[in-house]
Amino acid sequence: MQRSPVVIIGAGQAGLAMSHCLAARGVAHVVLERGRIGERWRSERWDSLRLLTPNWMARLPGWSYRGAEPDGFMAAGEFARHLEAYAAAMRAPVEPGVTVQAVRRGPHGYRVATSRGLWEAEAVVIATGHCDRPAIPAWARALPAGIRQVTTADYRNPSQLPEGGVLVVGASASGVQLAEEIQRSGRQVHLSVGRHTRLPRHYRGRDIWHWLDRSGLLDERVTQVCDLLQARRQPSFQLVGRPEGGTIDLGTLQAEGVRLLGRASGAVGGVLQLEDGLRETVAAAQQVLLRLLARIDGIADAEGAPREPCAAPRIAAGAAPGSLDLAAEGIGSVVWAGGFRRDYRWLQVPVLDAGGEIIHRGGVTPEAGLFVLGLRFMRRRRSNLIDGVGQDAAELAEAILGHLVQPCRAAA
């Protein structure tokens, strides 16, 4: 059995940020990673994916982007190398190729069973992130066997899809990007639209993330929102990070020939059931967009930024069908882009709620010595962004240090 005061599970941006903050406080630890550093960025991303945030926002504790394109967007592989360089520079104690199989209470804290033996630790940090397992509805099993089903973790490029039309389910960041790419490949795309958040790529002379950063929106803390659960369920922004720039949203997709449908709610054989609420969903997203731009305008005016309208193509969201016959429409594949769920079956400590999510307060669970990092709106709105895990990690490192000094004390 190997021992370490702290075991960090996961060597993505959250785990490495945590490692840096613990090292800065002189806390010995180990980082266990099932694959390579930043494995999900290497093996669970499609070929054309780039970060949605500009390179200058790839900030981690003691580390920032050092390339020639601060306003560009790193490809997934580039970002994995960014993380690798970060880990090497701080000599992070990463153990690659170690799969965590179980975390249980032990006589001196926790026992972490792995594919390469047992670890004992006084504290454990779960840094596996918010994007764990693609969410697929149970009714997907009712679709005909001849329909090819892929998730955003499986999809690489349009060539892997069979001939025929494609149904993309989900219209947040991943859904709109894949809908555009597949439509441009020559296949007819049908996009099932649920709740979404529209944003222009650029506004008033700057990338939209400049204004989100300057407005203070990303730094809103959990105590500043009326409904934290609702805030954590907010869909990701409809953005694409591509060198040529440009906004992508339902209007641009519709102009390119993508067919917009209501939210998919079930299937009977090869017939998809659709909700009749597309017009209302689009209108709600537009209202959120206008409120956000009004908030940004106050900051932009103070900075003397040039005035400009938000030029977004009009969305023709008329009466949508109540069902979709996949065979009749020539649809041969479905791409699930409806978000992610967490899978904590290996966590054998009583900290999961009825939905299987970790119960925590700012990353501190009810079980002394067990922490979590990298979840959406964990302490502040930017918590699950690359640019946000560092601030949370620094605060959580203090809580971990307090636990190691006084193990029975409740961390705050």
From TrEMBL:
Keywords: Oxidoreductase. It comes from Roseicella aerolata. The keyword Oxidoreductase applies. GO terms for molecular function: flavin adenine dinucleotide binding; monooxygenase activity. This is NAD(P)-binding domain-containing protein. InterPro entries: Auxin_biosynth/cation_transpt, FAD/NAD-bd_sf. It holds the Pfam family Pyr_redox_3.
